[in-house]
Automatic annotation (TrEMBL):
This is Glycerophosphodiester phosphodiesterase. It holds the Pfam family GDPD. The lineage of its organism: Bacteria, Bacillati, Bacillota, Bacilli, Bacillales. It comes from Aquibacillus halophilus. Keywords: Membrane, Transmembrane, Transmembrane helix. The chain crosses the membrane at residues 20-42, 62-94, 119-138, 158-181, 215-240, 260-285, 325-343. Residues 354-585 form the GP-PDE domain. InterPro entries: GlyceroP-diester-Pdiesterase_M (IPR018476), GP_PDE_dom (IPR030395), PLC-like_Pdiesterase_TIM-brl (IPR017946). Coiled coil: none annotated.
Amino acid sequence: MFELLSSSFQDFKKSYKKYLSFEFIYMLLASLIFIPLISFIFNRMLKMMGTGALLNAEVYKIGLSLTGMIGMLLISFLAVVILFVEFGVIIIIAQKRYFNKSIFVSEGIVTTIKKLPKLLGFGIFPLILILFLILPFIDSSNLPALLDFNWPIILTSKIYGSYFISLLYLVVFLLFTYLLIRSIFTFHYIFSEDMSIREAIKCSWKITKQNKLKILFNLFLLNLIIFVAGFLLITVISYLVTVVDTRIIGNVVESYLITFSSYMTIIFSLLSIPINIIIITRLFYRFKSSQGELVEDQLVLHSNKKLNSFESYVTKFFTKKKHTFVSVVIIFLTGLFLINYTVNENIVYLKWDVSVASHRGDLKNAPENSMSSVRSAIDKGVDAVEIDVQMTQDGVIVLNHDMDLRRTADVSSQIKDMTYEEVSKIDIGRLHSEEYVGEKIPKLDQVLEVVKQEDVTLIIDVKSVDSNSEFAESVVELIEKYEMEDAVYIQAFENDILQEIRNINNSIKIGQILFLSAGNLSNLDVDFYTIRQSMLTERFINNAKRQNREVWVWTVNIERNMKEVLKYDIDGIITDYPERAQNVLGLDFTTTQAEGS
């Protein structure tokens, strides 16, 4: 084992410059060509489907339309090409180093491109599957994010939610790991043995049959060493910051070291794939030898003289000017350090301005969407109270979430089929607790009257069913009656009713509720998004802020997830546990203050 690690380290030591050079070039190509191209195809596909964006359940239309399926197949093909080229070049460099041969990076690129025709055919489909198996284990920044997912929050929510779901996720993870281990040498057979995709998968499956645990153990140990090395580096940097006592020098050094650690993180991420492929390459030839197969260099390189000459010239130039190059890099990094230090010194630190909204009032301590629930939330000092509203058969706006009243009152009737007189007789407190027996369903104007006296924002979630225009007019009329246009946010899953409200009174803030989206949302006429916490990503936040739109996150109940969402520049949290969210905000802010003093 240690002999394998030692040999792999020697391979890396001799070739790390080539890996770094290629990864930097490839990262540049990804940002300039690959990501824009795939994003263009995806957005073009959505336009051909008749819309620039798909909201919530509409996203599933991609898989139900011919245009969507063709578009996703094309995108999958391009994604395979991108990773095929990246893995191919790294494998070729590692393979030649195994046989003590040095090559130009350009030779690896040209040779890989020459093998691209192998992707044309039915063999591409199992390769797409292998791509999806690999993605969770690698930094896939060379591929664009077509949908927004926050995997830490998704996994945390599922793990806390159900033991069965946790077990199911574990089984799926183990299955993915097993399939990945069995197909791990597919690319090596394609590039080193010049096999077709189908033959390569069969051979990988065969060679790994008796070696699954060895592969898993070696890769686990390697990545554990990488993780520990990175952790120790960050720990040492943190320690160096604390031993510098003087204020001015200490801040400057701290800025230097923090920025340095950021660059080291980038370099670690760039080299993680090459390091793993080096050891996988050595395992590949070790297993071939143990099975009595002839181990020889069968890889034929292809090259371009002009590219080789250019690479040779660049290499010689930087070799001769090594000291000058190092000096320029140091000066450049020093300049960035000083800029970073100056900017940090001039930042005005403000209180963490994230609003806490209580979901359906204070539903954990009073019947949801009741006057008691609203008052309880206000008494707890929340910034906003979120409620759900529907319209009765005779046009009265009342509070209720579900289409019927089974869950809250054990009544099967739907609000839209009942008159207000019928609704007003229903007891929604009986099923909650004895304390609230006799609690009735309130009208929206009752809530507006109470909230108007408080310094609280009211978030109204409109649950439209049939007549959007009449519903919208009634809601806006009540808001205008109490002159609360500036104190009310209106949100909905259906964008049509939001536009009805916009047309009636454009001073009321409207927001789109999202649990899934695809495409360009900039054409939506909204003031804010209310997104499921599983959608929260830096990309989504940046796009929203560019459009001057607020981002509220629902429904964040687990403390760990609260801390996770607060890493992002959000405007508000909607939660069933407002006091828990307030405590997390207070504790985190106190910690931040203490660290900054």
